[in-house]
Amino acid sequence: MNSKSKRIALYGIFAALLVVVFYLETLIASFWITPPAIISLSLLMTLCLSEDWKLGFGGGVLFGLTSWALAAIFASPVFIFPWVSVLPRLFVGIGAYGAFRLVKHLMRNKNNTFLTAYLPYSVGAACGIIINTVLVIAALTLFLPEMGSLGYWISACITINFPIELIAAVVLTPILSNALNRSFKKNTQNTRKEIKTNEEVSETKI
Fold it and tell me: 50 phi and psi, to 5 degrees?
């Protein structure tokens, strides 16, 4: 599978997953004004760290637009505003991917599987969650001051949402990312085998 096909497949798969997961998270945590994105943020981190910074940026845009669309459907008093649901997410994927690549580079000569295959994803995911939380709080404070002060939003988002989202992303992202990489690697190998077989059959006929 080439890079363009992989990118299209990832956007399609994660768009569908995000809609379902966002819907479930909204229903489960409907009594929270800003329900924690436990699974959806882990999916976002997995998408953002799966290829390059461009996919990371696109993943943030996809996440923000999905959040905004569902907020419109469920009449969310907060994420209905695109400068809260979309704007902060434009920087999440790029930041997460940058941290991931830095740790990946630092651990490149290590022989420990955890350090090379899991730690970069965990650090990247942690940075992504921190960036998301800080920027969403900043957006809420700047654009919706009538709904609460900086202290209120820090209390509302960090005391409950942030620890849950951080732990979930740090644990789930490496697992999901490595499973995704194995899946695409296997698909690529099968495609190459199929092409080779077809070529051999063509040569035999000739």
Answer: -85, -20
The mean of the pLDDT values for the chain is 84
pTM above 0.70, yes or no: yes
pLDDT in tens, 40-57: 999 999 999 988 899 899
pLDDT at position 130 over 80:
yes
| 91: its two tokens | 């920087």
